[in-house]
Structure formats: structure tokens, C-alpha cells
Amino acid sequence: MCSTLFCQAKKPTNNSGDEPDAIAAIETLLRSQQFQIEITSVRALRQKAEAVEGNSFIIINKELAQIHIPYTGRLMESGEILSEPLRFDGVVYKYKFQSAKKNYSWFITFKVLDGRNESYHFIVKLFKDMRCEISMSSAVRSSIKYEGKLFTLPEKMK
Fold it and tell me: Which residues have C-beta within 8 Å of that of residue 79, sequence separation ≥ 6?
């Protein structure tokens, strides 16, 4: 998979608005399934958004994922409240994306299976300025929302 050391890409893929070339570049990136989302804020259910400090990201590299995100929420079975980061490498499946009808935005959905057979479902709304809103759910955890920015995956990580 990829090393956390290389997960500091700071170059946005595209920020040139709604020109056809810019839109095509974003769709090519999404089709490649090789991108990184840097998490900038987190919002647990019924709570205010909080800024995220440090190294929090979701990396998609074809069928592989690396997840390093904060998590505060309830375990469904026990009701226990957790407040700890989710950090794991996983397998991506059911990846798809589609354009929204308005405002040059896209919806990306995928699932990630971790090493303990827990499956996480991600829904990402990507805007043309590469900002994104992320919703994550799981059968054993309460849902949580994030905001972030999508970047190309550095060549050395592909």
C-alpha cells in the first residue's frame, strides 16, 4: 500500500472552475480511483463541526484504501461511546461516481473493508473547487460527517 510519509500532497488537482477541460480533468481523476482527501473538519451526530489538526486523510489507490480519520460516535451493539481515530488499510469495493445535475459537483460512493471484516460506507460530495463533504457509516458504528479537500495522489504513491 502507501506510506503515511507520502500522504502530504498539497497540490490541488484543479481549481479552474467550470471550463470543459477542468471538468474533464476532475472526471478523469475520479475514474482513475487514485486520490487523497485531506480531512479538515469532523462533525459527529448532533454536534458542531470541529477543525481537524494533524494528519487525517482518506487515500484511494485503485482497490486499496488507507484510512486515518478521527472518530467520535457510538458502537451500535454496546452503546459505548468511542472517541479515537480510525486507522487502517483496507480494500475498496463498490466504487462509483456520478455527476450531479447542477453546480458542477460529483457524488462518489465506495465501501472499504478493514482487516477485521468491518465494512465502512463512504459518500463523498465533491465540488468543482475540490472541496468535499464526506459521510461515513458502518453497521457497527454511528454515522459521522467530515469536510475536506481532494487532491491527486502523488506519482510515487501510485
Answer: none
